[in-house]
């Protein structure tokens, strides 16, 4: 295995991506391997993603070993990457709503698009083509970095398949962030049935963020079975990432402080990711006055940049016991029984959703629904709508699950 030492020019070139030229590299595996799609820099100012994808692409090209699966290394928001901004008109990682996807899908008739619709349409065409060739499990990764200094961490949509994959990484992971955000690309991939993992590699501009991304990509390729671990220095990458992460924790996201530009939200200075906070602690200010922690826990992803719609998140560590219990409950299909509880009924238009009246929602905390694989969707008047994922325990792409 050759090691890379890049010249100054090569490093600069790593960031440049021609507009609309998403595929950094594509490798075809043998007949029965998995398909792995890795997206980097879907937020255009997070250059570590594209840099790491290019470095991994070069090493894979130079290696003598072939991949066993199909591997797609994909640049995210190409137009924003070149301007070094998070997005052009709208956040591409909040753009994957069913309405936008229908409008920008290759099957749609619309041909004139602008802003992030262009990027989305082009990426959708690549994803559709990749999925039409699938011959095994599908994995999707999304690489990010943070505005404030942070140790790296992973983000996992709460399905049993995602959790099983995430547990193979020496990583702290946040569970349930998808319940707080609408329209992420990984949410779209989850709905299609892929196993997904998001990654925050550290502070945007640091060299450490690029190295962490690289280590994560290599581990993902090995853990998914897309490469043979014996052909590449996987243990070195594992040790590197374990060292960068510190101790491994699983943290449940409990609260998101959503902001709009007109709120003029400003985070109090000095908060680090994972820092403990007390209930009522003043975390920032906006037009209406101080913004306080709604509960005790730890602060996650405090916003120290201008663009963005998440002020901060609050989370708490979850114990292994609860994770094991929920795995058992979901595997035996216990979620199907909760609809017989008083005050809980099936959604008339959606077989995966339940409508829970507020009186019951107060007695049955959201955590019980989480255990059974439901997540909060929205409040509909006095009713809470919770939904289960279609592909929680079984893959639609493989017969063995
Ligand atoms: Zn990001």
Explain how this protein is built.
The protein has helices spanning 8-15, 48-62, 78-83, 98-104, 116-132, 160-166, 185-192, 207-223, 234-245, 320-331, 358-363, 366-371; strands at 23-27, 35-40, 70-75, 138-146, 153-156, 173-175, 195-203, 250-258, 266-267, 276-277, 282-286, 289-292, 297-300, 310-317, 344-347, 350-357, 374-380, 383-388. With 401 residues, the protein is of the alpha/beta class. It has three domains: 8-248, Aminopeptidase; 251-317, OB fold (Dihydrolipoamide Acetyltransferase, E2P), CATH 2.40.50.100; 329-388, no CATH class. The chain has an eleven-stranded mixed sheet, sandwiched between helices. A four-stranded antiparallel sheet has the order 15-16-18-17. The longest helix is centred in the N-terminal third of the chain and has 17 residues, at 116-132. Residues 1-5 have low confidence and may be disordered. Residues 43, 46, 144 line the site of zinc ion. Zinc ion binds at residues 43, 46, 144.
